[in-house]
Design goal:
Length: about 350
């Protein structure tokens, strides 16, 4: 059993140039804006649009069938999460290129044209994205991200810099053959950090990760996962997001950091993470923060140590070389500390 029902589009191209893959869960109120932006793309484009509905309990499926018969739908029989949703769509896709697009994002009218033109002009395949803009304010959020030594994303706002450490999975474009080579998203990650991992893996194998300087997309950051966002100058997050974020960033560090430098970096990271959890629990006077976020995240990493180290050995052994550009995308700062100084103690909700 596939675990989903395939609802085919009324008409479909036999050889689309690009497959736009949209993961949806209870996003009926946002999905229209997303799909409308895809359908309104300028240029003579041959694309297919695939939506994976992750067992939504709202009227997403009804809306899709009534208003978007040109969209192929994979209707999951159970909630499987973001990583599985995207892996299923790409496996089903037939385009030369794939664009993973969040249901809470909307493309600028020239977005696909810009991505396809850039991809065709690249001498080396890689992962591409566009400038990300805040949905409400229209302010630039990032042109991809750099990383601090502990794999925390740092928004790149430099218009002159295109090569980045990672791009956000809300708008992630690449050749389908490259996705297959990299193995897609690790399904155990569930959600959060899968884009970080895939981009680091691509760069480790010598591929480029690029944020274009033109076009863009609007994004309701965190709207579908109660994510970290600047809400009236206050950072807001949830227990689940923090747990997954810390677990998955730590896993990406273990798997992708080249050379034995990983070990002292990991030890320092775990010490800082423990201190962060204790301080936050004391400030909030809520020890569930320490137990359910930090202890659980580090415990998960320990329980998975065999799997992570096996993945590290296989990936580090099979890389062509350590690209000099891999280290150039890191910055010698502790980004969490900068965010603490800028926004104060985050609000953590259940």
């Amino acid at each position: 059993m596939n675990g989903f029902e395939h609802l085919p589009a009324l008409s479909r191209s036999e050889s689309p140039e690009c497959s736009v893959c949209i993961a949806n869960y209870n996003g009926a109120t946002m999905l229209h804006d997303c799909l409308a932006s895809v359908i309104a793309q300028q240029g003579d484009l041959n694309i297919e649009v695939i939506v994976h509905d992750d067992a939504s309990t709202d009227d997403s499926l009804t809306m899709l069938r009534a208003k978007y018969p040109q969209v192929e739908v994979l209707a999951s029989t159970e909630n499987v999460g973001f990583c599985v949703s995207n892996n299923r769509m790409v496996h089903h896709a037939r385009g030369k290129f794939i664009l993973l697009l969040n249901n809470d994002a909307a493309l600028f009218p020239d977005a696909l044209e810009a991505l396809l033109t850039s991809a065709k002009n690249e001498t080396l395949p890689g992962i591409l994205s566009l400038p990300q803009y805040n949905w409400q304010t229209g302010i630039l959020v990032d042109r991809g991200c750099l990383l601090d030594p502990f794999y925390n994303p740092i928004p790149n706002l430099d218009p002159a810099r295109a090569d980045v450490a990672m791009v956000i999975g809300a708008c992630l474009f690449m050749p389908r053959t490259l996705w297959i080579e990299l193995g897609g998203f690790p399904e155990w990650m569930e959600s959060i950090g899968e884009d970080l991992y895939l981009c680091c893996l691509a760069r480790l194998q010598g591929y480029v990760v690029t944020a274009l300087g033109k076009s863009g997309y609007r994004h309701r950051g965190g709207a579908t996962f109660s994510g970290v966002r600047d809400d009236a100058n206050l950072l807001v997050t949830t227990f689940r997001r923090r747990r997954l974020s810390e677990r998955n960033k730590t896993a990406a560090m273990v798997i992708c950091t080249p050379t034995p430098l990983m070990w002292p970096l990991l030890i320092l990271h775990l010490l800082l993470l423990s201190s962060e959890g204790i301080v936050l629990a004391l400030v909030k006077w809520d020890w569930r923060i320490w137990r359910q976020i930090y202890v659980t995240a580090m415990g998960d990493v320990w329980a998975m140590r065999g799997q992570l180290l096996s993945s590290r050995v296989a990936i580090q052994r099979n890389r062509r070389r350590i690209p000099s550009s891999y280290a150039h995308a890191f910055r010698p700062v502790i980004y969490k500390l900068l965010m603490l100084c800028r926004h104060g103690i985050p609000k953590v909700s259940r």
